[in-house]
Amino acid sequence: MNKGLCNWRLFSLFGMMALLLAGCGKPFLSTLQPAGEVADMQYSLMLLSTSIMVLVIVVVAIIFVYVVIRFRRRKGEENKIPKQVEGSHKLEIIWTVIPIILLLILAVPTVLTTFKLADVKAMNDKKRDKNTVVVNVRANQYWWEFEYPDYGIITSQDLVVPTNEKVYFNLIASDVKHSFWIPAVGGKMDTNTDNKNQFWLVFDQKATDKAGGVFYGKCAELCGPSHALMDFKVRPLPRDQFDAWVKKMQNAKKPVVTDPVAKEGEAIFNKSCIGCHAVTPLDKRPAQARTAPNLADFGDRERIAGILEHNEENLKKWLRDPNSVKPGNKMAGTYGHLTEEQIDALTKYLMSLKVE
């Protein structure tokens, strides 16, 4: 008896915790707080399908309880056989038609939404409007590259987009399968190595303000030991601010370093890092040569390695042992030879990389 009571208490505790945690969510990372047209459509489908399922469960539960009570065996009626309804055409029609109606209620908006979300004709039109924003997303273990082909700009880890308009994406992977997902803005889509997937998203300005101006993106396909750490940040901007950002990136020059310590770091960078990393957003190298994140705006980023708070201490932690931050990353083991003085200098230089 006591054991059963203890198990019941544990079950109740876990149930309460699950209910409490289910309500946890932040506007920059919650699918239940939609932040754009795509997210709104998908959220509406979730509500519709959930409502239909709950309705079916409730009706079945009511019928079950009714049958259990109404037709239970009573004392003195052990041999009484209730009226048999097997082969009733009316009942057969009812429980055949009702599921068909429910399926149609769910299928019609689902199909319409699917075709609407798959409409990417605007991005493939050779004469597309100059204001149509297209981003080539390239997923790598374990970082993200964002190329703006119409502007000649390449960034990494931080995606910048305009608000209140469609932004189109070409998705591809450089090594293994990944999946591009911004939970608050729209459902995930795979990035493959052998074919390109395309879709679009809209970033709502009001929702962006509510989220503090930043949304979180994640990899949603198991891709290796640091899959859970393969994050990126999205900074939606009003159209005029986005245009200003584009102009600033297009006019960016190679940073001029004046601080003596930072100059030492620049020398170390040019000797050890420049072969993989670029420090200008106008990187002309082919995709195959871009084997590491572009660092042009590193000093302005939201996170280090996509997950650590952006400060010098965390950058030094990354430079000392990248594998302790992101196991299995391609940079792991390449910086074990740096002294603390060299790490300090390199940190000073990297933090100075800003697009003015």
Automatic annotation (TrEMBL):
Protein EC: 7.1.1.9
Kindly give the SUPFAM superfamilies that the UniProt entry links to this protein. Answer: Cupredoxins, Cytochrome c, Cytochrome c oxidase subunit II-like, transmembrane region
Q: Which Pfam families match?
A: COX2, COX2_TM, Cytochrom_C
Q: Would I find Repeat among this entry's keywords?
A: no
Supply the alphabetized keyword list: Cell membrane, Copper, Electron transport, Heme, Iron, Membrane, Metal-binding, Respiratory chain, Signal, Translocase, Transmembrane, Transmembrane helix, Transport
Catalyses: 4 Fe(II)-[cytochrome c] + O2 + 8 H(+)(in) = 4 Fe(III)-[cytochrome c] + 2 H2O + 4 H(+)(out)
- Name its cellular compartments: Cell membrane
> Per its database record, what is this protein's job?
Subunits I and II form the functional core of the enzyme complex. Electrons originating in cytochrome c are transferred via heme a and Cu(A) to the binuclear center formed by heme a3 and Cu(B).
The record's similarity note reads: Belongs to the cytochrome c oxidase subunit 2 family.
Return the protein name: Cytochrome c oxidase subunit 2
Lineage, highest ranks first: Bacteria, Bacillati, Bacillota, Bacilli, Bacillales
